[in-house]
DNA sequence: AAGAACATCAACCGCTCCAAA
DNA sequence: CTTTGGAGCGGTTGATGTTCT
């Protein structure tokens, strides 16, 4: 492939100095970045345009959140990675203020190892061992949920394009500020998850899971911090019918059934969307609580999964 | 205390994509 | 239609920091 342009021109490489950072920030704040290729000369930097762009987008940009990833963010990354693979830039669009590079690094240094430790293949996101039935159960349910999310991420559904627009572009229909600034498809699924869990409580459909009740406190879009709900999930192990319960009309649906239903029934999406827009979106969900901490908290400190974290 | 091993993450490289000529 | 060049993406490297022996 030959030598890089920066080598040929004798441009500086390696870590950026504070002075270089200052020059780059000052220039972009005054003129915008414009053509990255032309920027270094105009800004008085001995760097290639590519290096400047990287430094700006991954480090100097003012709208970047740095530091430790929240467990909520971790969950989002894992879910999106299952859905999108190593498409870091696509994943980054769902994590406001995080860069693709940062997410990629975090995945490679933390999350990948953690999933491996849990016996989950970080590429396929499936349980590596048949013995790990609890996790595969969870994975199965998660997959059904992710399929629905994939539909929303990939493009407009066949029905009701106006609904899609209202979701995909967090704009006029919503007054909540937190909704204005980020893609909504994930939130749709969060809401769905919350609704599903709350329905479980309503219908009191409880099965057993290793004789253990996992109590999951859910904070959905319509739940403010002070109005969190607690749902009890009991999952039947050894039952021929997978029943990580999703209750509907008094019955219990398996993840497969839900997945099929999602595939076959666009009307469901519209109905759900309707419900979400009309009944749920009004609430403040900035305090949407933490998936992992709740799960782990309720599993207890003796749990083998807890020890991984 | 010192060196080895491991972890982290900023930065680079090579490649693809895509718009403009 | 083909070529060209800029922008962006994902994989990888390597400097630095931290932990272990």
Automatic annotation (TrEMBL):
On whether Membrane is a keyword of this UniProt record, the answer is: no
Where on the tree of life does the source sit, at the highest rank?
A: Eukaryota
InterPro entries this protein is in? Homeodomain-like_sf, Myb_dom, Myb_TF_plants, SANT/Myb
Q: Which Gene3D superfamilies match?
A: Homeodomain-like
Q: List the GO terms this entry assigns under cellular component, sorted alphabetically.
A: nucleus
Name the PROSITE patterns on file: HTH_MYB, MYB_LIKE
BP terms from Gene Ontology: cell morphogenesis; regulation of cutin biosynthetic process
**What protein name applies here?**
Uncharacterized protein
Q: Which species is this UniProt entry from?
A: Tagetes erecta (African marigold)
